User: Fold these one by one.
Assistant:
Number 1:
Amino acid sequence: MSEPATRLQQLLDDPLLLGVQVVAGQAGIERAVTDVVWLGPGSHQPALAQALCVTGPEHQQPAYLLDALLRRAFDGGAAAVLVVAEHQMLPPSSLRLADRLGLPLLWCAAADLQSLVQGLTVRVRAPEVARARTVIQLHQRLQVLREGSAMVQAVTDLTQIAVALVGSDGSCILGRLETPVDTTTLRAPVAQQLGGSLVHPVHNGSERLGWLVCDAPGTGDARADAQLVLVVLEPYLRAWLAEERRRLEHDTVLEQGVLAEIIADQGLISREAAEAAASIGWRLNGWHVGIHVVRDEDTDGRSDPFSAQRFISVLSEHSITVGALVDRSDHWAVWWSTPSEPSDDEARTLLRRLRVAAAALPARWGLAIGVGQPRPGPGGLAESLADARAAAYLASSRPFRPAVVHSQDLGITRMLLPLQQSESARVLAESILEPIRKADGGVLLETLQVFLENDRAAVVTARELGVHRNTVTLRIQKVVNELGVDLDDASQRLALLLACRTMG
Amino acid sequence: MSRRRLVSKDVSALAMGATLLGSGGGGGTDLGARILVKALGDRSVELVAAGDLPDDVVIVHAGLAGSPDVYAERLIDPQDLVRAIQAVVDAVGQPLGAIGILEIGGINALLAPAAAALLGVPLVDGDLMGRTYPTLLFNTYAVLGRASRVGAVVGPLADTALFRPSSPAMEARFNQHCARAFGGAAAAAYYPVAPADLAEFGVAGSVSACLALGERFLAAQSHSLRALAQAVSALHLVSGRVVSITPSEADCPGTLVLSNPTTGEIVRVDFRDEFLVLAVDGEVRHVVPDVIVVLEGASHRVLHVDEVHVGQTIAVLALPSVPRPAATETAFLGPVGFGLDPEVLRV
């Protein structure tokens, strides 16, 4: 981005300082010089960090004046002190003090102090001027860009510094990272170092939107440059993220409305809804496979938050390009579309890929996914989503996650669905199972369901629950006693299994 | 707090205290100590607080005018001091109640007691400076703008100059010119003051303080430097080898530079007639009116400004001066009085 700061040794080779002698403090000759400060009579307390302090003959004698100036320069982090005086009469104490402090003490007999200070200032400020120029160019470029990816690219083009925008969940939103960073561990919204990377918060008041990351910031001046770039870029990306969010929220509301209409009208949608669907890029005339995604309510999403974007991105990695994903508060309605009727092979491939993709998603999400039959047109989409919903219902009753069930798998069990899903069935099931519902922390209910699902096989039930077979036998005996049922009676068994599934 | 009587066995402690408070100047005290011992003989001089004297008497301050270099070679007759005091007493027309010391550092701390012994009057336990200063301008009355009502300077041939200065500056000029006229050094008497006046504006208790300091130093002189510094309650102690000396010039104080081979510290001591500033690694640690004392490394002998030479190993101590009355504390008694920038020399 910019040249490194000038070293004193380099400065001494400059024609500007022709005739300047290093009279003491040779050890500090490699110090960086970033400023020139005139310390004359009446000069106040300027910042001296990395400055070449220039003074006239009035500080040359007595010794205490020059000693005090050296000390002040040293304490202020100055790079060197230059005494401009006709004769070199620097006090012995000052020479020794400069050696002791490792602070170069220079002398020259130049007559035109003003030109010297001006010339030196231009020379040592050159890297800073270059940096300022780059910052201005950055602002000029960034303020006309509307896309985050273009902003990140512009920064890289102008400064050769690669940056990336990482979400709070650690996913990379923009740019590329050679070294991944785990931003989920970051708490304080301040610029900081994470491993070898520099991270800078992107936040809107108290809301943290993400982190800007430079994973190869280099050292010294390069590092300072990288830090500066992150500071410059942050407000632009913040504005872009806010705009994206606003647009997304608007789209979500629109999508939810259109989908609700499609489902309610079973395909006979209004012209307005059809136009709205077209405006958000839904192609409703082809064939659709509905996918219904639900997640367990008690899953822990804090450390690995649910993200529709991530879901789509994982599906995409597994060659599934979804037509749309609509967040319907208790589930995601997703569909996959083709212009013509998909072959059986295509449908099977889709299901297989979906299973592999679901396995690649975090198990903690506790996903249950139902897949519908391919159906044509807007009405077909509503039907396929209804199929998928039924399949997801079955999937959610499976004891493992992620569970993916195709509506074909429902078979004859489809007959049971209306029973299991109805509110009256749920009330009835609750009253039947009430005696064991909360007993022993719910293990009796769980044991009963697994026992019945496994066709009363105590050994299989014990293995699935991770308990001893005798424990299963004892629990089942307890259930029989509590409920007063006869498990040898097939009707009673079926009723109990339905009740358990309804409760589940 | 006063010791009631000063006897000859106290002289060495008084001389040592005066040497320390001389801060490297004030003239050698050996000669003064011999004069005082001879003047005291078997007698003693009563030490009194100014406030304890009756109101109708006058206290006259005595000391030397001129250069220490001159009286180092041309002995002083203590009777000249008596003559100078007498001349002032005659001029003010009041009975002499006691003798006061002009400055408690250097030879002047010993000559006024000798005059008191010869005149058979008490000595005030106090002085007008609290340490050594190079001229009369630094006494507690002068810094408040008060000149001596009457001053007298007596030469080696008993020539007597009596004057009534209009200002401290004129008083210092009279003093300087008379001393020069009398061969570079002379006996002087100044500041005939009432006891109550002196009790308010004098540096009270400085003779006792000087004696105590001298006693503590003598008792610990053979101990380690650290123990010695502790014995005299030194504010600071540094040591090193003298690597350079720049003599004092009209507009520029002289400078000693020490290097401490163990710590690497660079110590600077600025001086004129006395040591004025102690700085370590460019940081000012002590400034006049603190008393800066230079000791020869091995013997712990107190060195005058002109006794330090390159290559010598020395120790530098900073001691507090004897506290002056608050009303007389002015910036002039610090670096300002020596033409040095007080802002730069801020500790």
Number 2:
Amino acid sequence: MMNARERMLGRLRAAAPAPSPDSAVAALDLRIAAHYDGPRPGAAALVDELENALRASRADVWRATASEWPAQVAARLAQHGAKRLLLDPANKEGAALAGALPSEVEALPFNGPLETWKSELFGTVDAGFTVARSGIAATGTLILEPDAGTPRTVSLVPPLHIALVYADKLHATLHDAARGERWRDGMPANLVLVSGPSKTSDIQQTLAFGAHGPRWMWVVIVTGEQS
Amino acid sequence: MTAQPMHFVAPEDFHQRARAALNDPKLRASFRGAMDFLQTKRSSQFPDALELEHLRDLGEAIRQHALANLPQLLVQLEDKLTAAGVHVHWAETGDEANEIILRIAQQRGARTVIKGKSMASEEIELNHYLGERGIECIESDMGEYIVQMAGEKPSHIVMPAIHKTREEIGVLFEQHIPGTAYSDDVDTLIQTGRRALRTAFAEADIGLSGVNFAAADTGTLWLVENEGNGRLSTTVPDVHIAIMGMEKVVAKLEHIVPLASLLTRSATGQPITTYFNLISSPRRAGELDGPREVHLVLLDNGRTQAYADEQLRATLQCIRCGACMNHCPVYGRIGGHAYGTTYPGPIGKIISPHLLGLEATADLATASSLCGACGEVCPVRIPIPALLVRLRTEANRNPNEQVAHPLKGQGAKFSRGDKLVWRFWSGAFSHPSIYKMFRWAATRFRALTPSEQLGWTQHRTPLKPAPRSLADLMQDRNQPE
């Protein structure tokens, strides 16, 4: 007796044309590459583009040097009234931020598997801090690769998401990012592209923020020289 | 949340509901506003017409390549995902898909399922099925949450609650969410929805989502959204079940880049949505969140019928952006509920016959002036008008006629009388002598034409032949004095 899988595949195979030769895939890949071909903005223009696009999506974005940003983020957090901030003290950015925090803001590492402290995470954490793997200038997008130190929910559950991206890690387009980072060679369990705070226009096409994800998103673009 | 009981409608009653919708000024105004908004948003995303046409060519080529290799790509996707620890299931029908999901839920002793947006789950009426078996499904997309609360179905595939005004939503929330005062401020309403669903995310046993694209080469599910509810549904519960129409796989992850751009720009006029959520495996060793168990249900439910026919296969190129409905003069006037199908508008007219059969859906293909707007905006160039004509032909074909790929419900609108009239018509027009006789008779006996002329006289004055035919008049004029 055949199962559903065999019956579905059988019907497809009976109707499908002969499999495309490899040359057809190569031709398609070339057409895609050609579509995205063209002059790429220089390093400074990439930062401008990213900043503008993120701002258009209502993220709060600014530039800072590696030595400046921890104190700036810390001051803003205090002003925002955040009490508990999720960060990874094991990475250098997390450690730098933890060191700069005023006493009223608590630095909180991701304390064990989610299921052991879910309600605490949902109920008591005000902000989450992540370092983006890279960014996409054209659409104002940060590419996050959650890991053991900074799991997926850090950029998702707290109402404020703070993300750091290095200016020298910017791609012009999503196409460049996927190609340049060789996504085809293997993907992490979860890769997340974030372009601003959570939003919806499901009620009468009126834009509202903080639908289910973070209501606020701060992005620090870390530049090499004095900003 | 307490919701109204689900109100089911049948596509067979299309004409009745369409008339009711046309006479509902509030619904008309709300759809007109929404359609104008979405059309403007879309066109603002494509300032360069040439780039748009190139990208549409590319989108079409990518989808056609994927469909041409569909059986191999599905097997490759299954292999990749299985190796990564994802369970892949195949469902021939909606019932089978429901049973698979129920079995997973029962094995886990699950009581609640939190849902990200999934039109495939609407198609199989999963909420109803699980609900009858004691498992509650909670829709978490704001639009879906609202229509679920109202006991309705989505009226648009991208914006489910497009037919509802904020005042109506204010009343719904006041009635159904305990401790909520009436408000028609959109921001307040969204924050109320957010608060109400927060616990549901944290407590649900299973998260269920749709899939926008799947890549066979890396074994990746690509989910597109703005709210974050999709990410929460696929991240917080210990089990994630994704359900996907079997046509959505493409050969390579890199092929999704142009498709995703076409999708967000065509659907809501956004260069990109807030989140692209790329899932390639369950929680890995050392990770502290993410589901421990991930399932993918591949759904046929009539798609292989469309696939079997070379012309109708183009239906499966669809990436579910909704641009065709946003630009359809019929959809814009009657709204989504009139269709009585999960997918309304032009795409609904061409996909529903495969899901439900032509008996129930034959009236949909004729509810079109064939103006071609849908085909012009389709980001993957589905020739929707040509497919509508084809489906009309299939609905009127003799049910006993043997064809290579018969459709479910072939000949649902077949009538011997109609066939006879058309045969006479084509005979008269291809034989001048018969036509002349017909002309002679029609002009001489014009007084005998009936004043009741079926559908024609419902809204129009009766047709009556002129006393003299054009050919006669021309002959007179050319006659030398």
Number 3:
Amino acid sequence: MEPHLLNTKDRLVILKIVAIYACFSSLWIYFSDKILGTLFIDPETIVRISLFKGLLFIILTSFLLYQLIARYIRKSKQKDQALRESEKRLNKAQEIAHLGSWELDVAANILTWSDEVYRIFGLKPQEFKATYEAFLEVVHPEDRPAVDAAYTGSLREGKDDYEIEHRIIRKSTGEIRYLHEKCEHIRDHSGKIIRSVGMTHDITEQKLAAEAVLKLNEELEVRVSQRTNELEENRLKLERQNEELRETYNRLEEETSERIRAMGELREKEHMMIHQSRMAAMGEMLGHIAHQWRQPLNVLGLKIQELGLSYEYGSFSKELLEKNIAGTMEILKHLSQTIDDFRNFSALDKEKSLFRIDQVVEKTISLIKDNFLKQGINMEVSSSGEPEILGYPNEYSQVLLNILINAMDAFVERRIDNAQVTVRSWEEDGRAVVTITDNAGGIKDEIIDKIFDAYFTTKELGKGVGVGLFMCKNIIEKNMGGRLTVHNTENGAEFRIEI
Amino acid sequence: MELIPDSNHPFTILIVEDDKSATEVLKRMIPLKFPDFQIYVAENGKTGVELSKNYAPDIVITDINMPGMDGIRMAEQIRTMRMATKFIVITGYSDKIHLDEFSRIDINEYILKPIDFKRLFSAIEKCIEEIHIERL
């Protein structure tokens, strides 16, 4: 731009002023002389008046010129004002946007920076005259060659524009700012570059924000990768745990099968014990049968021998014969009955059945009562109600027999006078209860907790293997879901069976 | 062996047995062989001791297992009253424990059930012979 040259518009205004002046002067000359000629004939008067007319002309044209020029200046001032305001607004906008502008008059090598460019460079607006060298000096030394190359390169290669991002170091604070430069070259009709216009945008904030975003991104990436690692670790840990769990499960399975095997063995052992205890019980029964049979067999023998002897000594008679035959038959029937009792007792219960406790008690006692009485042991049996339970009657009978025979053994061993066994049965809270109470002195405190243990016995070698009470407990508690307990009374033991 | 009858000293036998059927037969049979003997019968040990006090039997034929007082304890008590009494023990047991118990008292003969009369009679005869020897 050439600020000091007149433009066409200015010229037109001047021409207009000159034209108005010329018109007015011409009209004045023509009409004033004509009016004067008509009014005055006397040449002397005309000459005198012409002098006044000339003075008036000067006054009028001066006034006219003044008015025209003042009007022009007023208009011009108004324009300047508008321009200044526009510039001010632009300046403010640049300041707000941190966007400065510059212009280089290539021919005259005059560089102009807007105020904002100065501010961006850390300088006071219009502090000194801008030059390309001053600009390069502000550019960060590392970016300087690239910036220079971009500008001069664009000139050399005849490009219309270029843009570049670079850093500067602010003179005043030494602060590093990031700039975005964009430039356009303006050519004349021959294609020669006459001016370069450009803008300088301070993008530090965006750059920093972008960098921060980048940094955040990087951090995020790091964190993501950390998290990924952690997740992977967790996954591995889980896998390990899974593996351990699987191993534990396998071990457990092994243990379980081991246990099942052990349980099988235990069951087998238990079966053996049941068998042993049954054999023992049957042995006991056999003992009792032997007792019960010895007496009648003896009588049987006596009765038969009596026949022979009485014949020998001459006292034989038909009466004696009949009497002894009848007696013999009676004894035989009794023996036969005991065999039946024994067979019933030794038969295994196949299924649970509903039976009356008092009846089983009575039947069991009938098997051994004679023997007890013979040993001088008094038996008392009482029952109230008709308690019924679902279970195995023969096994129940085996339990009763076992406890009763233990009592008898205790009496014989301890030689108790007035030996007494009391068996009571009744119903209590829906349970059938049987107690077997003796007065044989009770069980010693130190063994009372062990008497239900397998292979625990107080009897001499060959008199018991110690499975009797163990089996009793098994039969009552496992097979029939009841309870078998013992406690000492004042002078003996009391067993209690509850089902 | 011949029994020497001695009407001045009739022998007294006490049978202690809780089985009535057995005592009945014994009571009938012993007199067939030994007609002049005095025979008493007790059902249990306690009665046996009572009868011994009154009749001082020469021979006691006793069972072992009896309600109340058993044969062994009865024998001990009778022995303390009369040392000379002979004991014939009838037992159903043949095991050692009871034989040991018998040896505690000085028993003369023991017979296993079922009773064989020939054995019982010869046991009685043996006891009588011993009594004779002791009385000489």
Number 4:
Amino acid sequence: MNQAPETESARADVRLVRDSLRGRRRAIATLVERMHCIPRMLSAKNRDLAHPLTAPELEDLVQETLMAVWRKLPTYDGRARLETWTYSFCLFEILHYLRARSRRPAHLSDAHLVPANGTASADESDHIDHEQVHASLERLEPADADVVRLKHFEDCTFREVSQRLDLPVNTVKTRYYRALEKMRGGLTPQPRPGAKV
Amino acid sequence: MSQHTDEHDRDLLDWLVGSEGADGNRDAAPHADCDTCRARWEELQDQEAALKAAGTDLRRVVERAEKLRDLDVGVPGEEHVEVFFAARLKPERFTVRLRAGLAAAALLAIAATLWLRGAVPPGPTTDRPSTDLLGGSESVRIRPRSPVGSVPRYVAFAWDGTLPPEWTATIHVFDGNSGAESEPVDVSRPLLSSPWLPTHARTSPWPDHIRWEIQLHDGSDRVRLTVSASASRSSH
């Protein structure tokens, strides 16, 4: 299994985290600047969900997310861009909070996941648990997950993925298929509560 | 009804990865008369839809977050980021470079002592002047640009000049009417470049007349240069 991150930006992000944890001042400054994405992404996601959270609740969530990210920071391996990696924590914390707040602890009403603007992309995503996607990717072989992330999170074509990872296109395609094989059963959209099946 | 074979699997893979161009029919399962192929084809479609939706969601949120940053829009909880990491990530006091410097200085001291005692013959002399702290190739010129003088609001704390590699800057804001030894009313996080953009909520309680300092720290966290400017705010 290939353990090293395969893109230059990923290696740079790993160095950034490692140097920050070692106390390198410039790295700390950069990391803190980058970690400002947490409150911004939480606010952006809150807007996406039609503002279910108040400002004080968002402040609490920022602290919860910071703590969750901090606990895992030493294990950051550059498999995803720092902001992408951080987003999975934001998503988990915000959904976890909403679930806990709702009277239905087992499952958050999917209505909370419908983006406020109701665009075509909302139609695609309104009954899909994005959190489940991030969790499934974490369970994949890192080399396979890299391909899926680049393809869907960074919207790359297979040719672009092959260039980014410096791999033959056919290898990329095989990894992609293998990844989806391993994710079987984990990503099937759930019907919305009350929806006709 | 056909039997599922290895060839069917290869065709499914081709269907999945060969459809980025115009060629390939995405609407039909290869070997639609094979139950296994049809079921797997439907599942692959669902998986791709889920991944695509998650990717769209991620990019949308990251893009909005970046827009908030570019517009310098304050969001709830952002002040916690600096406080949180300041309490946990402590800059190291002695970097490798500093340790090497200290070791070299110790060796020089020993050599000088031995030379003074006549144990070592004097080496060739040079009239090259000793390197100034911030002179020669390490020359750093920093000049506060804004806010300077009378301004409507304190928005961007900017300066002209570039920091050397490994260096950081911090902005210290003082009450302009207090003495030189007073405590700052606010201090920025370590910055890599100009400007510092404190939020309106942050600058609002500051005095209407301020003195602000740019402190430059080298890679060992030593303050190497301080320059200051004054500004007065005309409105809140």
